[in-house]
UniProtKB/TrEMBL annotation:
Location of the FAD/NAD(P)-binding domain: 4-282
Swiss-Prot/TrEMBL keywords: FAD, Flavoprotein
Ranges of residues in domain NADH-rubredoxin oxidoreductase C-terminal: 316-382
Full protein name: NAD(P)/FAD-dependent oxidoreductase
Pfam families membership: Pyr_redox_2 (PF07992), Rubredoxin_C (PF18267)
Family designation: Belongs to the FAD-dependent oxidoreductase family.
SUPFAM superfamilies from the UniProt entry: FAD/NAD(P)-binding domain
Swiss-Prot/TrEMBL cofactor(s): FAD
Length: 404
């Protein structure tokens, strides 16, 4: 009898791992997948274009139900696992269904952080995480009115822009002093704010939400300074929290997330974890690229295909919202002994800031002209010596490559 691989979580990280296992060892396991949502696996990255109307639901599906059948995978969609019995090596689903495992993969993802303020459970207050959230936002947009998006990060700005395109009057409120403060420096955040305001978004910075007001449904949002904004829809995009409850209840070691080693194995050698639910060497992950690499490494071990280690790499963020291009990579904060190269062209709407540590590029922020972003990212990832063309580095690959 084949060993049994059970996957808890039918999202991108878990199913990418399953794909990799099937490529490496297509006949090794009997595979069973449990998912909380009642359909196949889809690309969460494309929820924003779906909300904006640039994509349709079929465009974002990654694995249809037919794909599971064709690959001999038992899919239990809409029936999430509620308990792991490690002693019996069985998972128990909400329906009562039990599935025994020889290897268990946890890909439980994360949930939106809902600000712990009065009124956060009112009708019309929504996260931005799944297809149900998109349906709720689309219904609100059809009725029109005002939307408040709490969170000026990547996800919040994409949601705000999409809702504005759908005809709503949208205000973005952000607790920090500049937009996308995790990925952009202050100057880049300022340029982004100006661009979004020209497009019609209202943006409030240093805004601390204290309450969501309404009788039965949301009617307004109140801030620490006493300001109240009318709202027919409130979107919480103020970060996510890894889903660890299932693992904690099973006695697995968790800190901020499920702790894994370099092979993506938990403290139980039969149980692996990938994606936004994991913590590796103190870091947690919210982007697709790390999840893809984790899936590759984890699948190699599940497929008994030799020893691979997950190594954290520099990450890049690219955003295009209303005609303004942004690119951020590596460590943009720098340190006491790092140096900066800066180019500003206000009329052209271009801003570039490169962070160097000795002879190596460690971070890059680009606004307006992002064509060289992937090249800078490659230099950061390789730890390349840029001293031979440091004086031309700001002007991009075309002027630097002849000197390499």
């Amino acid at each position: 009898m084949k060993p049994r691989l059970v996957v808890v979580g039918n999202g991108m990280a878990g199913m990418r791992t399953v794909e990799e296992v099937l490529n490496l060892a297509p006949d090794l396991y009997d595979i069973t997948v449990f998912g909380a949502e009642p359909h196949g696996n889809y690309n969460r990255v494309l929820l924003s274009p779906l909300l904006a109307g640039d994509k349709q639901i079929d465009d974002i599906m990654l694995h249809t139900r037919a794909w599971y059948r064709e690959n001999g995978i038992a899919l239990h969609a809409g029936d999430p696992v509620v308990r792991i019995d490690r002693k019996r090596r069985v998972v128990v689903a909400r329906s009562g269904l039990e599935a025994p495992y020889d290897r268990l993969l946890l890909a439980t993802g994360s949930t939106p952080f809902m600000l712990p303020v009065p009124g956060n459970t009112l009708d019309g207050v929504v996260g931005f995480r799944d297809l149900t959230d998109v349906d709720t936002m689309l219904a609100a947009a059809r009725r029109g009115g005002a939307a408040v998006v709490i969170g000026g990060g990547l996800l919040g700005l994409e949601a705000a822009h999409a809702l504005m395109r759908r005809g709503m009057a949208v205000t973005v409120v952000h607790v920090a002093a500049s937009l996308m403060n995790q990925q952009l420096d202050f100057e880049a955040g300022r340029l982004l704010k100006e661009s979004l305001e020209r497009e019609g978004l209202r943006i409030l910075l240093d805004a601390s939400t204290t309450a969501i007001l309404g009788e039965g449904k949301v009617e307004a949002v109140r801030f620490a300074d006493g300001l109240e904004l009318p709202a027919d829809l409130v979107v919480m995009a103020a970060g996510v929290r890894p889903n660890t409850a299932l693992a904690r209840d099973a006695g697995l070691h968790c800190e901020r997330a499920i702790v894994v080693d370099d092979t993506l194995q938990t403290y139980d050698p039969r149980i692996y974890a990938v994606g936004e639910c994991v913590q590796h060497r103190r870091a947690t992950f919210g982007l697709v690229a790390p999840s893809w690499e984790q899936a590759r490494v984890c699948a190699a071990h599940l497929a008994r295909n030799g020893h691979r280690r997950y190594v954290q790499a520099a990450l890049a963020t690219k955003l295009k919202v209303t005609g303004i291009d942004l690119y951020s990579a590596g460590n943009i904060a720098g340190s006491a002994d790092s140096e900066e190269l800066v180019l500003r062209d206000r009329r052209g709407g271009v801003y570039k800031r490169l962070v160097l540590q000795g002879a190596r590029l460690t971070g890059a922020v680009l606004v307006g002209d992002v064509a060289d972003g992937p090249w800078y990212f490659d230099l950061i990832g390789r730890g390349a010596d840029v001293s031979g063309f440091r004086d031309r580095l700001l002007f991009g690959q075309a002027l630097c490559m002849p000197a390499v």
